[in-house]
Fold these 3 entries.
Entry 1:
Amino acid sequence: MIGARPPLRARRLLVACLFLAAIMVGSFLPNTPASNLMVLFILATAICLIGYGATVSGYRRPEKWPMFTALAIGVVTVFAVNTGGHSLWLTAFGESLRCKVISVDSHSSSRGSTQWSNELDCGGRTLTYWPSLGHTVEDVGREVDVVVDKARFVRELEPGKVSLGFNLLFLLALLMNGAFVFLVAWLPVRKAVPAAEE
């Protein structure tokens, strides 16, 4: 049985939007040089994700769908903002450079895994290039194209990872969450049908 729309609780909606903003910031920060704090970002984002789900779920008691939907949308948001936000930032503040590989470096972790990076010379500017997913380090002497941040706030990316398609992922995350919060606040709450009426 469909009941009335839930009363407008602006404070609860504001808290949900603040949790959402924190999720988006926490999803974007691993693209910055502070990515050595990755565990902290993941933990904070997970806590905000749970807070987001609990906040929207509490808005529509006794329904359970908002909690699970918020968690699913939140996870999609993490990936969309991480990828799309990085591309969008470099579209706005990046420049494409042709660089020469001057070294290949290995980095061993305490868990035994090894990551590889290149040291690049980009017309007098030296930078450490960590290949993104699907790309590998290049041999010494080869030339590579990278998109670098003029402000040096985010890490560089390959030109193929900075495109309109990736930028639209960020917009998709915003629209998806905006529509979800609107539906949580606007849709009528379903009331349980008493056993005598069935």
Entry 2:
Amino acid sequence: MKHDGQITQEILALLGSTVSTFIREGLALEAHEISQALQKLKDNEADSVLKEKYETLIRLLSKMMH
């Protein structure tokens, strides 16, 4: 994978958790909506380390969409 150096188990877990929420709630699963959901989670997160992981994932998704 092109971004292997940036994708950690924690990053994959954040993505999995976010996608699982979409699936459980029966929501459409589009990359930009996942990115928006991650941004909201990041904005509401108090832990600076976790915020940075959200930001990394958001940037990776953004690169993949463009």
Entry 3:
Amino acid sequence: MRVRQILGATAATAILAFGAIGLTSTPASAAPTTSAKIASADWDYDDDWGSYWSWNHKAKAKGWIEVEYDHHEDNKVEVGGKVYDKDHRNSKCGYVKFRSYDWDGGKWDWDHVWGYKACGWDKPFHFTKHDIAKLQVQVCQINKWGGAPFKCGQWKTIYDAWDHDYGYDWDHDHDDHDDHDEV
């Protein structure tokens, strides 16, 4: 949905911009202006994700992600959505957690980003993190009074800079691809 809104706004802007060209003239000596933001805008990504479920289908989560690049390996990732508690027993809750790989100079360990719990209702969540190369989500259940998550579904990738489907140009400013392990 978010992609369609952006594409619609982009199309409207293009129509207005090209229509305005016919009304104005630019001297041939005028130099075009560029910036790093424009060059990296091709790497930006946004999409909806989910619904993803716990192993027993008693918790679910869905949401959206927006990735904005300022420069190569320099981005801001915003994630939002809702976690749903579908287990109507009073002692269990829905739980969603996120983990990431960061652009951190070769340390390819997963970082725990955020976890959110919803007990008996749907709970919205939102977070922002910088310099993310890969982000995954997992939906579980958790006891109302704490403890470790259980009955977790599979980890689902919602952004991966090394996968061309997400729009990031790994070839930009890199000579090889063998220095990163697939996860």
